[in-house]
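Listing 4. Sequential folding, example run.
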Amino acid sequence: MAAMVIDIQPSEMEQIQEKAHKLGVDAESIVHFALNDFLHKTVENESDFDAIIEYVVRKNAELYKRLA
């Protein structure tokens, strides 16, 4: 398994940890699930980077609203 280090804003990390606690899993599992979900979504034109970025922003906005 490969490892990756990413910077997460403290407020985002807090939200991830809160969600993980509610679900009874660790924060890494939440991030792994979100990444896996993103990777398995179908974008009509996979080479369309803008569409992918827009999807991520839209998806995260909903997640953050639910976590708030």
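-- end of first protein; second protein begins --
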Amino acid sequence: MQMEQETWYLELIGEAGSHKFYEVVLENTQLNIRHGRIGDTGQTQTKSFSNAEEAQADAEKRLREKRKKGYADAVLGEREKKAVPTKRTFPKFQIIGFTEVFEPITKPITKFGGQPVWLEEPRWAICPGNGQKIPFLCQIELVSELFREIQPKVAYIFHGGNPDGSESGWLTDHGDTAIVLQPGNLVFYQDIGISTHFVIEASGPTLQSITQFINGEYISRDVEYLPIFKPGKDQAYANEENFEELTEEQSEAFMGHKLGGSPFIWYDWLMPEGGQSEWNLLLQMESTDQTQTETPFGVYYGDGGCGWWFISQDGMKIEYREMCG
């Protein structure tokens, strides 16, 4: 018995350089979906359904969504392949692991945990809701390889803690974020920009502390880590429209803990206004429970997610975004 087949072929042209196709082939209870750049083979996906009605409904839903985004019916082969413009790349330091250090770090280099190594008079960020100090997550040396010649040299990130002051866990989705830039002592606070919420104290709660029994007494120690870097480059941010076309390999290149590069962001509204033309990705941190990088400390965004810190090209503004699972 010959199977019934119906084919839809759509194209999206001209929007932000788009030159893409989307094809749906319905064969009884099976959908064959193909999409990519016009002239390429593209990526394929096959979905099977329990009956032809379900398959038809799914095909119609997909086509409606694409047409809302500007796709229109076209004829396969009529339009020629368009040359792909060379994309700008962004240098990054991928964090592939962490090394615990047992002597306090005293230089203003990139590190996680411990206590800040201040370049100027300290500015410890506090939560305006409860007056508690926000825990110190890390300090980042703003090296020219990633951030060009911006004026600040070190960014101190305070992140997490619980607004009610309880000690029920170091959870980022229960706390606040603030960044201090030095030199200059600019303090940026999540959602309200430049902040006056700080105290002039050099030390406070940190990423991780442990208590050990040594020589007959209990001794508390702040744990700190040096990140292990793998230099590389990212393609420019893949916006929401293009995100679904990324291969698994391309998606993985954006993921992980890293300094610089391009953010693994799947919704355009999460990017700061102006995008990568005006902002550098300062730090991307994935939830400890979902990242592929072995992480000896806990950073959590609900049941999984990611946090992104951005610094402007001139080094005078900070933006923070997060997505909780």
